[in-house]
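Q: What residues go here?
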């Protein structure tokens, strides 16, 4: 019996494990592959993950080496050196990969067949370490609804449509459900988009870097000025369009972000060096080069989070300042079920950890393969319907008619 040696990436986000299925097969495996001549394990890991999913490795650590009979070739033994990986980007099927899936420990109930090493060794070890989410159960009565705004509740930049507005108003009127707007917008931008609905929220969250309850700032996580200086100096040298958000005001360099014509907008003059004290978010206009995000990541290092949105805008916040962290800090979310609606990369962790999750639109492929996740169309009526269903405690099968 021959032995094939491979390197594999174990990528977990929000308690969900990334698996990939090659074209013409039915079994899902970890992203990875064989070393090319002269490659180290880390080089193989980086290359294979990018080729198969488009993800860029941020960091890795050894997870274990496992051997078993191949799920694809009965006469072959596979020896896999697995690394626990943190990576940037949205996982999408590339090259020979036909499908990506994000799965929990109940993957079989979702119709997922995992490879032998993945199912017999990797999944149990992730569960034993408390890294992988257990199989989704009946959530019970929802006590918190947290929703992203752009692309989730609003699709034209002018605020939610009439059906979603009515559904949100009904939620606010109930009084027994906490309503959270978890967005990349600063609180002033949320209020501008939502109008009176914003005042009825339990919490407004700007990427986890700033949270507001009523008129009170309950959380503020500024970026480290020394690290931010390296990033900003690079952007100024490249004449990139960006803005620095201080929470209650922001300053723009370049001519980008024409839709943000707020009264507190300030423009940096040519050669002017901005203050970096108290910055809670850096946003970069759609980069001009394909490697711009990778350069941002390299400059930012582990102290900063780099999130590329579907529209190309890149947000930079302090590491750990995430929507999921801000939501977890809200009292009561550990004792009653939480429903989350989102559509973009910075929603993924929050969606993975929710008791019920709804992906709006076509983004974040494969997330609906987890047992607690539903996908709906990015349309006013569809999102309004699911908002109403969520608070009626209907199951995923009920909501989808399955």
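A:
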């Amino acid at each position: 019996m021959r032995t094939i040696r491979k390197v594999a990436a174990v990528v977990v986000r929000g308690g969900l494990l990334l698996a990939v299925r090659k074209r013409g097969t039915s079994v899902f495996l970890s992203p990875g592959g064989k070393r090319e001549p002269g490659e180290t394990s880390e080089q193989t890991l980086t290359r294979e993950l990018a080729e198969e999913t488009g993800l860029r490795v941020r960091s890795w650590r050894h997870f274990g080496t496992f051997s078993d009979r191949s799920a694809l070739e009965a006469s072959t033994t596979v020896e896999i050196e697995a690394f626990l990986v943190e990576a940037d980007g949205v996982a999408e099927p590339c090259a020979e990969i036909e499908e990506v899936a994000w799965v929990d420990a109940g993957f079989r109930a979702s119709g997922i067949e995992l490879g032998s090493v993945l199912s017999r060794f990797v999944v149990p070890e992730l569960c034993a370490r408390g890294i992988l989410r257990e199989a989704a159960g009946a959530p019970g009565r929802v006590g918190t609804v947290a929703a992203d705004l752009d692309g989730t509740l609003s699709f034209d930049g002018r605020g939610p449509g009439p059906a979603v507005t009515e559904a949100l108003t009904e939620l606010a009127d109930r009084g027994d459900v906490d309503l959270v707007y978890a967005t990349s917008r600063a609180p002033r931008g949320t209020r501008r988009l939502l109008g009176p609905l914003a005042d009825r929220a339990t919490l407004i969250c700007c990427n986890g870097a700033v949270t507001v309850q009523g008129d009170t700032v309950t959380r503020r996580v500024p970026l480290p000025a020394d690290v931010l200086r390296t990033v900003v100096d690079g952007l100024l040298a490249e004449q990139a369009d960006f803005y620095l958000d201080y929470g209650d005001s922001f300053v723009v360099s370049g001519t980008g972000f024409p839709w943000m014509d707020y009264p507190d907008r300030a423009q940096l003059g040519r050669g002017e060096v901005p203050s970096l004290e108290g910055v809670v978010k850096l946003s970069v206009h759609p980069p001009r080069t394909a490697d711009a995000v990778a350069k941002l990541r390299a400059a930012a290092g582990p102290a900063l989070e780099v999130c590329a949105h579907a529209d190309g805008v890149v947000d930079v916040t302090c590491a750990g300042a995430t929507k999921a962290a801000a939501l977890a800090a809200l009292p009561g979310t550990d004792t009653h079920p939480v429903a989350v609606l989102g559509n973009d990369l910075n929603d993924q962790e929050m969606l993975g950890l929710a008791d019920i999750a709804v992906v709006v639109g076509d983004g974040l492929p494969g997330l609906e393969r987890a047992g607690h996740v539903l996908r709906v169309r990015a349309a006013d009526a569809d999102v309004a319907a699911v908002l109403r269903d969520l608070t009626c405690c209907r199951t995923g099968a009920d909501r989808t008619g399955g």
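A: Context that may help when evaluating the design: The first strand starts at residue 2 and ends at 13. The mean pLDDT is 90.
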